[in-house]
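Page 42, continued from yesterday. The earlier attempt failed because a stray header line got pasted into the input along with the sequence. Redoing it now with the clean sequence only.
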Amino acid sequence: MMFDLKRENLRQDFLASLVVFLVALPLCMGVAIASGMPPASGLLTGIVGGLVVGAVSGSPFQVSGPTVSLALIVWEIVHRFGVAALGVIVILSGLLQIAFGTLRWGRIFRALSPAVVQGMLSGIGLLILVSQFHVMLDDKPKGNGLENLLAIPQLLWKVITFDDGSHEIAALVGLLTISVILIWERLPVEKLRGAIPPTLLAVLTSTAVAVFMNLDINRVQLPENLFSALALPDFSLLGKEGWLLLQQALTVALVGSAETLLTANAIDRTLPAHKSNYDKELIAQGIGNTICGALSALPVAGVIVRSSVNVKAGARTKMSTVLHGVWLLLFTLVFPFVLRQIPSAALAALLVYTGYKLLDIRAAKRIAEIGKSELLIFAVTALAILVSDLFTGVVIGVTMSAIKLLYDFCKLDIHKTIADGKITLELVGAATFFSLPKLADALEALPTDTELHVDFSHVTYIDHASLDLLMKWEEQYKSQGGTLTIDWGVVQARFNSRPGKLVDEGVKVPAASAG
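This time it went through. Structure tokens are written below.
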């Protein structure tokens, strides 16, 4: 849907944009803090996500902005290469996304295994939870996810023993924030819950308490002028560390694209009459990231929470997404003093709760129902992200999925039945060189003085190596006095007669034979 200036649509889009704005405002700043960047950079990304990406989006109801899934990647970039390199990396990721969309690769990003995707989200959730738990207690996060996790017991001991007063106060503010969210989400009156987003109410409550009681805790650092937070990317770094920066850009582009298109897919399922243009959406995200990189802001991506809120609030066109960016810009320019009163612990508490929700134990149970191997892929992906980094974890997960797929493709089951003195060997699956030892063992274990029938009716693929083994074994079996029937005619009919046949053209299988 494009912009529709009908009065009813304008009214609905206006109301929906206000709700999305109220949800996006605290999350933009919270994600920036989790990324090791000033809150202003998150607000800039939210503004670009609304005004630019929203205007050219291929998924009109999708809301783009800074996202939790990219927060840890940005944090690593900033600490490894510096803020000046972030702009270059985000620009490169934007150009890559534009290329992906132009080449019509949008659907490829939807082909990721659900176990890998859920493992990625759970790993991100765990990383966010353990890192922002420290910020929620006015402490600094450690070097990586595992260090953050192992340091939590010591930090909790400091809080329990009142070792440092600032930790206790921040912990209470964080606890208050999460408590308000939990209570508000469980109110029996649905209209009341829908009128005010729980994240906004939680931040307002914590901020009011902090201001009223004049609490000595960390607050949001926001410049007097939003545009003073702008910085130009340092392109001279391309000459020094170009390949490393390109690797980081590819990571940002892949993760951001995957989350964006997964979100678009989720919206399409919610609204069956609406279908997103995935390639156009990739180009829109690429344009947004190119602009965000030029501003040295956070990378932009489609976000499921804000997009879901947009749909539930009754948005009719992409105008609601664009307007939410307008409200972010106006509020940041006109009321920055209000934002500077927000406790950092309150925003960190939002992310701790978000990280917990991303863990999604119910999704793990659904994956377990599919199979133990899928659950293993899910768990290994999540743990690999925790102990290493997001890119490594996803690569490990994708590699495990590819190995499982290769195993399933090459799997051959051999069923032996004996009836009336006759042995039937039924082959089910793919007869390839991977399964050659298994097939050879099954054949060699057969007695040579019986009548044997080899059934190919359930073979999905047979390669040169397997055919060669069977033909040689047929000659050997007959020479030892056995009676053998192999359905060579079935093999020829099912494979050699098809266009693009699977059997090597150089192999001439025998004519159908019996005994």
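Notes: Strands lie at 63-65, 301-303, 412-419, 422-431, 451-462, 483-486.
Reminder to self: strip header lines before submitting.
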